[in-house]
């Protein structure tokens, strides 16, 4: 049942305390006080003007974004669990939790375990309104899991597996075990110029800019907001 | 700063006139006031109902939504008001908080809705005023308990299917916890229940005196001594089953330490230990006398029934939840007993041949009197004793009656909660089914969209099925997202049916041998460009070359017949497929291509018959090319050149 908030170190002390509480009839104190202490931390974003300066969104767009954000997360922040839940709604067939974690870490620029509205809007601004270089930078940041400035094959393999996980089981053609690894190999073949086993940011941006497919696909960010 | 302080500030500043003459240094200049910041009336439009208030009112609490700059996010420049898409009835209470400083809790609203509104407007629940605080906390606690039950029920009754990779241990544990999941578990459950009953009955019957007919003086003997072997065998069987069950539970428990400390396992241990101790202890008289008393612990086997009976568990839980009240009452009862026993002892001390030989002896009298039992084995004989005895019994009635309503109300609350929990479990199953349906609905919508050729170029728009056009903006964008994922991974979403067909066909097609084909299409690196899966495309092209010259007429016939069973009508005729220059960047997902390609796969996963299949005439040829079009299914990253080569 409900335990008293303070815990005695020794079991003897604990037993004595329980006996005392049994006798005086206060064995189950209200634990609602505990709930009150953990009342929701409310995070308020910076002012609209500041956000307008920091991002490339217009005032109206920021307003719309905030209203949606606030509706979903009245406390003003998203933690990892919520983020994963939200993201998984778009991929009903597969398991998007790993990729959502990577995304979360990319959005959470100050690594405090929660994404606030500023983080959210800053990320969106780079992706949707940034230059091609900005977007590629952001993507590189996403892939670089330990943020050390270069992508290793293991990191890329993790990312690739998480993306393939999102496809789920029922795909055509059937997903094989080696599919992500092969994809990683081809990626590295293309990107790793000096064949040193890691892809640095310069190699990444250079290779992507030379790739017409990738450049052409950048248009998919039009009209997102 | 308190709420109304801002109002009094001008007065306080004016009162500084008293310091003016006394100041030894020039007083600092007044701060520049921004151009006439007179108080303005703000309009807050909550779902159409307009609330108007002074700006100062809202500024009183700057750490809430309305008091801070956060409300600017909700400012509608066209109408000049702050628009919130929330419940206007609840907003009334929020606004009143700003006006009066006290947050009241609406009695007729759901407490969770109220909490959500508070969270939205940035008000902490501690702000609820004292007049409404008690009720608020009670309702919140009730809600929290209900939610906790929900979660427990969810975790406990986790649906009939465990994850596929669950070990024997997990399956066993689940079988123990929820016997309704499998027939074996149910059988085990009933068997153990039966043996508990048998064991308890045997314990009871063992002590009934059986007439021994063979002896001349009909000596009464307890049945246990008359049929020792029978009872011993029954006991052994029961103990064996209980021991086995305990060991299995120990093996299956996810956390063995926690299991060892749990109440049920302790009961199990206590129930079976006496038997083993009895086996070990030798059969000499004095030790076995002490040992016989151990057998009383066998009665604890009856508590094992609590795993089988919901009602027993509820009773146990009730007693546990009333523990504090019961403890206190026990203590006060003890005090009363001691007082009255002392009094009775000293009152009866003078009498000779009295039963009240000591105060502890008087305890028995006090207890029997206070609970209104009145055995009559100890009665006071002096007048003082009788007076105090009557006072004792009267007060006993009052004291004993006190704990009963507490226990009863707790029991009924818990019992009703349990009933609700059962109902909710049923509802939960329905809800889960609905969620699953919605999820598959989304997937099916996407697959349907693809099937109807929605992914074709919009240039061929006239041929699109009408249902494709009727998608909402959200659906369009969501489908685009899924499409992008498909393109990234070079795989496609399908449904379960197609997937299992593909699996079955692959095992079927594996029998056809791979023959070296004559015409190997040179797929140079140039034609691949920088696709996301160049190596795969290359390998597929090689397989393309190697494959199905072995696709014989027979399988072509299969192809034809299968192509006949199409799910959606092909928008184009087969012959036009050859002529049509398709850019294979778009996936061509006619279902017949699906079906046809599946059968023609000789090796997994995405092989297509060689395009240089000369044997069959037009239909077969276009069949080949139509199946070849499916190479684009598996290789959406192949560029037009490769496909055009193959459609020659």
Automatic annotation (TrEMBL), chain A:
The keyword DNA damage does not apply. The keyword Cell membrane applies. Pfam families: EF-hand_7, EF-hand_8. One of its GO terms (cellular component) is voltage-gated potassium channel complex. It is found in: Cell membrane. Gene3D superfamilies: EF-hand. InterPro entries: EF-hand-dom_pair, EF_Hand_1_Ca_BS, EF_hand_dom, Recoverin. This is Kv channel-interacting protein 2 isoform X6. It comes from Tursiops truncatus.
From TrEMBL, chain B:
The chain crosses the membrane at residues 260-281, 326-347, 359-375, 387-408. GO terms for molecular function: A-type (transient outward) potassium channel activity. It is a multi-pass membrane protein. GO terms for cellular component: dendritic spine; neuronal cell body; postsynaptic membrane; voltage-gated potassium channel complex. Residues 40-139 form the BTB domain. SUPFAM superfamilies: POZ domain, Voltage-gated potassium channels. Belongs to the potassium channel family. D (Shal) (TC 1.A.1.2) subfamily. Kv4.1/KCND1 sub-subfamily. Component of heteromultimeric potassium channels. Identified in potassium channel complexes containing KCND1, KCND2, KCND3, KCNIP1, KCNIP2, KCNIP3, KCNIP4, DPP6 and DPP10. This is A-type voltage-gated potassium channel KCND1. It comes from Tursiops truncatus (Atlantic bottle-nosed dolphin).
């Amino acid at each position: 049942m409900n335990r008293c908030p303070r815990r005695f170190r020794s079991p003897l002390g604990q037993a004595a305390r329980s006996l005392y509480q049994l006798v005086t009839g206060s064995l189950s104190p209200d634990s609602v006080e505990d709930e009150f202490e953990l009342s929701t931390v409310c995070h308020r974003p910076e002012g609209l003007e500041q956000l307008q300066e920091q991002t490339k969104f217009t005032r109206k767009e920021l307003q719309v974004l905030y209203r949606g954000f606030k509706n979903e997360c009245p406390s003003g922040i998203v933690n990892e669990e919520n983020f994963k839940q939200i993201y998984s709604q778009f991929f009903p067939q597969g398991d998007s939790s790993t990729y959502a974690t990577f995304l979360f870490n990319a959005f959470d620029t100050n690594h405090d375990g929660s994404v606030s509205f500023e983080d959210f809007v800053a990320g969106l601004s780079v992706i949707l309104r940034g230059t091609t270089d900005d977007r590629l930078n952001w993507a590189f940041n996403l892939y670089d899991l330990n943020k050390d400035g270069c992508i290793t094959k293991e990191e890329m393999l993790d990312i690739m597996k998480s993306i393939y996980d999102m496809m789920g089981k029922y795909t055509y053609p059937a997903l094989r075990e080696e599919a992500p690894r092969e994809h990683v190999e081809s990626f590295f073949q293309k990107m790793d110029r000096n064949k040193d086993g890691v892809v640095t940011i310069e190699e990444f941006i250079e290779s992507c800019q030379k790739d017409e497919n990738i450049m052409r696909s950048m248009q998919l960010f039009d009209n997102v907001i | 700063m308190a709420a109304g302080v801002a109002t009094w500030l001008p007065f306080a500043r004016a009162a500084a006139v008293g310091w003016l003459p006394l100041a030894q240094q020039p007083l600092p200049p007044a701060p520049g006031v921004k151009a006439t910041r007179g108080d303005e009336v703000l309009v807050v439009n909550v779902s159409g109902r307009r609330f108007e208030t002074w700006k100062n009112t809202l500024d009183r609490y700057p750490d809430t939504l309305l008091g801070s700059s956060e409300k600017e996010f909700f400012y509608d420049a066209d109408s000049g008001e702050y628009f919130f898409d929330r419940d206007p009835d609840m907003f009334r209470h929020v606004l009143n908080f700003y006006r009066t400083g006290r947050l009241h809790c609406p009695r007729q609203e759901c407490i969770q809705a109220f909490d959500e509104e508070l969270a939205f407007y940035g008000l902490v629940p501690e702000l609820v005023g004292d007049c409404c605080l008690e009720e608020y906390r009670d309702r919140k606690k009730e809600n929290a308990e209900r939610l906790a039950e929900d979660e427990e029920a969810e975790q406990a009754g986790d649906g009939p299917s465990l994850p596929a990779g669950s070990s024997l241990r997990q399956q066993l544990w689940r079988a123990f916890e929820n016997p309704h999941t499998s027939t074996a578990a149910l059988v085990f459950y009933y068997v153990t229940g039966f043996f508990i009953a048998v064991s308890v009955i045997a314990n009871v019957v063992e002590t009934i005196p059986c007439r021994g007919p063979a002896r001349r003086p009909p000596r009464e003997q307890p049945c246990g001594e008359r049929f020792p072997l029978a009872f011993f065998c029954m006991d052994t069987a029961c103990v064996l089953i209980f021991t086995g069950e305990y060991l299995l539970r120990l093996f299956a428990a996810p956390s063995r330490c926690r299991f060892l400390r749990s109440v049920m396992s302790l009961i199990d241990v206590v129930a079976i230990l006496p038997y083993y101790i009895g086996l070990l202890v030798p059969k000499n008289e004095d030790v076995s006398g002490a040992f016989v008393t151990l057998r009383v612990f066998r009665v604890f086997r009856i508590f094992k029934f609590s795993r089988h009976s919901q009602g027993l568990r509820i009773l146990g839980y009730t007693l546990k939840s009333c523990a504090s009240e019961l403890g206190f009452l026990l203590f006060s009862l003890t005090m009363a007993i001691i007082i009255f026993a002392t009094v009775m002892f000293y009152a009866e001390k003078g009498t000779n041949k009295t039963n009240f030989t000591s105060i502890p002896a008087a305890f028995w009298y006090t207890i029997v009197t206070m609970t209104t039992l009145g055995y009559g084995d100890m009665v006071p004989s002096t007048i003082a004793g009788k007076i105090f005895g009557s006072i004792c019994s009267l007060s006993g009635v009052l004291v004993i009656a006190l704990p009963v309503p507490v226990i009863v109300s707790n029991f009924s609350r818990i019992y009703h909660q349990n009933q609700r929990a059962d109902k909710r479990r049923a509802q939960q199953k329905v809800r889960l089914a609905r969620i699953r349906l919605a999820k598959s609905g989304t997937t099916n919508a996407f697959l349907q969209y693809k099937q109807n050729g929605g992914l074709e170029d919009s240039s061929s728009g006239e041929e699109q099925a009408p249902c494709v056009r009727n998608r909402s903006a959200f659906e369009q964008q969501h489908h685009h997202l899924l499409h992008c994922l498909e393109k990234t991974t070079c795989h496609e979403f399908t449904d379960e049916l197609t997937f299992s067909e593909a699996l079955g066909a692959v095992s079927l097609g594996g029998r056809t041998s791979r023959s070296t084909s004559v015409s190997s299409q040179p797929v140079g690196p140039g034609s691949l460009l920088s696709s996301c899966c160049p190596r795969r495309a290359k390998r597929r092209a090689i397989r393309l070359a190697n494959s199905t010259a072995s696709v014989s007429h027979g399988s072509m016939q299969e192809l034809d017949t299968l192509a006949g069973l199409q799910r959606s009508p092909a928008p184009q005729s087969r012959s036009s497929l050859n002529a049509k220059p398709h850019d294979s960047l778009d996936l061509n997902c006619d279902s017949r291509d699906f079906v046809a390609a599946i059968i023609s796969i000789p090796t997994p996963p995405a092989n297509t018959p060689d395009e240089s299949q000369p044997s069959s005439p037009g239909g077969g040829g276009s069949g080949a090319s139509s199946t070849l079009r499916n190479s684009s299914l598996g290789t959406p990253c192949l560029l037009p050149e490769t496909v055009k080569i193959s459609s020659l």
